[in-house]
Amino acid sequence: MLVLNNTNAQPLTFFLTGIPGLRAAQVWISIPFCLLYVIALSGNSMILFVVFREQNLHEPMYYFLSMLSATDLSLSLCTLSTTLGVFWFEAREITLSACIAQMFFLHGFTFMESGVLLAMAFDRFVAICNPLRYTTILTNARITQIGVSMLIRNVAVMLPVVLFVKRLSFCSAVVLSHSYCYHVDLIQLSCTDNRINSILGLFALFSTTGFDCPCILLSYVLIIRSVLSIASSEGRQKAFNTCISHISAVAIFYIPLVSLSLVHRYGHSAPPFVHTIMANVFLLIPPVLNPIIYSVKTKQIRKAIVKALIQKQQ
What we know:
Main location: membrane
Transmembrane segments: 27-52, 64-88, 94-122, 143-165, 199-223, 244-267, 273-293
InterPro entries: GPCR_Rhodpsn, GPCR_Rhodpsn_7TM, Olfact_rcpt, OR51/52/56-like
Membrane topology: Multi-pass membrane protein
Number of strands: 4
Structural class: mainly alpha
Largest sheet: 2 strands, antiparallel
Number of domains: 1
Subcellular location: Cell membrane; Membrane
Strand order of the largest sheet: 1-4
CATH architecture: Up-down Bundle
């Protein structure tokens, strides 16, 4: 069996996969995917534009929303070139270095989104449970510190993952099962012992999303307890309404993540194209739906977008 590694003179090349069994229909299937990418890129760009432009949106809640939009935008751009390249031009080849780079940013921005959702949960917790100290707790400096700490955390957990992937040797069968590079997918093609890689991957997952999810749940337990102590029903409803957009964002991030993991683990009887389509769609759900949810449910964002569109037409 031919074994390939990073020390070979010729760069190691992998082959991305489009939609197994539906190769003839890939061009047509790519149309809804292309539409999803357009919605994700334009929607998140618009959120960033209005938050940057409108002075009345220079508040902690909207700073965190702009972080979420920047993360979603980056997450979409990570897979855009390879996914549409495979669907439209059969551009399936990717070098190991490019694959590792895509994997680093793909997982890094996924973990970043989880961290931003935790920061937004903290924002809602302070706004509802300690409103009088909201502006003194969430200062611009502290928001910057939160953003930088999330970046440092992601780089710290992803660097060992990347370095140990570069040490692996691969067999001649180097066909990936997605249209982008995915850590589990990549290490499964290795001919050498990949247990350390699996452990590092699990550590990266549990130290980011595995830590963030329980903290988000805890914050909402405390928020619900605080809201239920409000005397008036109108006050309780108003407090809950400020959390609806964030709860929706948490749901559309974690539910697809868990669902995809369950499908990969237990859905062996499903056709291969089902796994591939679900993997691509689930990756696009948060970047597509987050700007829509915040535009619809957040009055200030909706007004700012309408204002920007009207001024553009004039």
